[in-house]
Amino acid sequence: MPIRDVVEVMWPYLLTVLGLAVIVTTAAHILLHKKDTRAATGWLGLVWFSPLLGVVLYWFFGVNRIRRRAKSRYASRAIVPLPAAGSVVSVPQVEDLFCTAAGGLAMLCRMTEKVTRQPLLRGNSLVPLVNGDQAYPLMLARIKAARHSISLCSYIFANDQWGNRFRTALKEARDAGVEVRVLLDGVGARYSLPPITRGLRRDNIPVACFMQTMLPWRFQYLNLRNHRKFLVVDGKSGFTGGMNIQAGHVLEPPPGQPIADLHFHIEGPVVAQLQKIFAEDWAFTTGEKLTGQKWFPSLTEVGAGLARGIADGPDEDFDQIRLVIMGALAAARRSVQIVTPYFLPDAELLSALSVAALRGIDVQILVPAQPNLRMVKWAAGLGLEEVLAAGCKVFMSPPPFDHSKLMVVDGAWVLLGSANWDARSLTLNFEFNMECYDLELAGALQKICARKIGAAKPLLPAQARAGNLLTLMRDRFCRLFLPYL
User: Fold this and answer.
1) Residue 327: partners with Cβ closer than 8 Å, 6 or more residues away
2) pLDDT (tens digit per residue) in 155-203
3) Domain 320-484 has what CATH class?
4) Could you tell me whether strands 179-185 and 149-154 are parallel, antiparallel, or unpaired per DSSP bridges?
5) Domain-by-domain residue ranges, the chain?
6) Domain 121-308 belongs to what architecture?
7) 221: which DSSP letter?
């Protein structure tokens, strides 16, 4: 039989075999790499019952392509030094320092150390900065006073009035001989048109974009983003929290789109952990390794706070912040205050919040009455209804939109940083938080929480359940997309 005739007869069978091979390979990849049972089940169902669509969607959107192995990770521990062992705090020392709350805090400290593999460091000063009104002038002052190095990482660096003040300060520092590095997210950098990266490059400021993408520049549900925000000056003075660089964060005079937020000025040994994460991200993005005294100087103790940096991302740091939150809820003995712009916790976190409230813990949750993303508001209703039924107290903050991210436990332990209470932050994006064992800081933040709650309205269970059938169906449908909101 001629070869052409053989091909005409056999090609349908060959395509069938090839299609089955692709489906089986995809299913095997899902089983081997998807840790979440529900996600694995969903992808398997889509692949088997709609093979063409399922396979295409999985390989485009379901696979984590970031592989940052230890041997090729941004900067090795030998290159990125941490403070001397004298700054490291042990679990027994935590028990001694926090007598009445020692039981829960000691257990939490032990768990976090095992999860993060990072030391808890003494001798830190952490000062909360409310909105850009307090944060930006101090950040600019530190940039202008820099002598050796500046590391700036931000999700959004807007090309606006305040963004250009930072750009000018960075240029002046660069002209004065200071080593400057600016790292922006590949999507967040394009929130302004034209992006500020053009001006930074014209000023000869080394700037890089983390994981640039060709997808729509304002598509707000993209994952695998670098959502971290920190500034480190001379390796000694650090800033971190949830605040981007954009004019909306400065509320006086009122901007067109105001955004309330909290940031923190940090000094002491823990600043080395901020710098370490920046050095790793910078090396991953550019290949350049930042080493030496100008980036990692010797750090002395300047305060009484105990602090530890917690990196999180869809790599070897996977799920760290979420586990720490779960541990903190289990360790709580009296109270938990949570401030978050997006409240979309998974089933396990919802259960942990409910259990804490059922144990008699005073759980207070503050969320914006009007989030900046409609789907987030629609999807959050079912979770709010569940925690309210268990006895948690939920408060809805009035405008301006509150972008603050904060958790305070028992008036002694604080979790601050860039992560929101949603799957994008806790499993899909790169985040940086800090845990702090600090009575003074916790007390100050409890007062800030009390002021926010005092201006908010309590959400009643009946209000959480309110809505007609179409509204409820819409909210339940949006919740199906929880991992991507």
Assistant:
1) 107, 108, 111, 112, 115
2) 999 999 999 999 999 999 999 999 999 999 888 777 778 889 999 999 9
3) alpha beta
4) parallel
5) 3-62, 121-308, 320-484
6) 2-Layer Sandwich (3.30)
7) T
